[in-house]
Amino acid sequence: MNILLTGYRGFIGSHLKQKLERKYNLCCIDLKDGKDLYDCPLDITPDIVIHLAGKSGVRESVKNPSAYWRNNVEVTKRMLERFSTARVLYASSSSAYEPELNPYAMSKHICDELARVHSNAVGMRFHTVYSETPRENMFIHKLLNGTLEYVTQHRRDFVHIEDLCDAIEILINSDVTGILDIGTGVAVPVQHLAPNVPIRLNTEHERSFTQARIEKIQSLGFEPKYDVKKFLTNQGITNII
Question: Which of 48, 62, 105, 107 is the most buried (most CB within 10 A)?
Fold first, then answer.
């Protein structure tokens, strides 16, 4: 099976590449290699496209919404149209459930609307992804390295990167299309993970509650192996509620 993987040098893409390259023929593209998917040549014919490239982050999207339109909406549209004979699995987000909150969420919502008219599309609504080496400056990263300054009253569905990659591989080997959540199905209060840290109440543009609807991915055989509280306890975080 020939797979095109975009964004392979990112947090999720780098983990997924390691998992898949032992089993599949991969062609990998990343902006860090000087290849802008907005207009770079795409002279390949993959069986499956896993499109992870794009811009993430709520706060940056508020400052620069046009970049999110270009890199998320326009590029995803190009991928769906260019590879119309392949299944295109693209990174969506739990943020797409409330697109009015910020430009990042809106860009993912529009991608999901595009997917509804492309029968080859699989919109993967990722929830809050973490690992032993999480994205820098995100909540889990700050918690693990002792730089967390505050928590919020949000509830989040935290999904480990290995579980996420397992779910993507299940999708590769299925014929499912449409939009589905990838998470654990459990919403964890963020403040329970760091109860001794001050609570910040003003968190504009962010969702207050996320919980993956995992029935669709479960029907394909997915079951998450990781629990975020057990994970953090194993990493030496001891005051979890």
Answer: 107
Mean local confidence (pLDDT), 95-99: 98
Question: At which residue do the structure tokens 């919404």 appear?
Answer: 65
Q: Residue 173 is part of a domain; what is its CATH number?
A: 3.40.50.720
| Residue-wise pLDDT tens digits, 219-231 | 999 999 999 999 9
Which domain covers residue 203, as residue numbers?
2-234
Residue 240 covered by a domain: no
Query: Does residue 20 belong to any structural domain of this protein?
Result: yes
The amino acid at 56? S
Answer yes or no: are the C-beta atoms of 79 and 51 closer than 8 Å.
yes
Could you tell me if residue 241 is inside a domain?
A: no
| CB 3 within 8 Å of CB 27 | yes
Indicate the pTM of the whole model. Answer: 0.96
Q: Into how many domains does the chain fold?
A: 1
pLDDT tens profile 54-77: 999 999 999 999 999 999 999 999
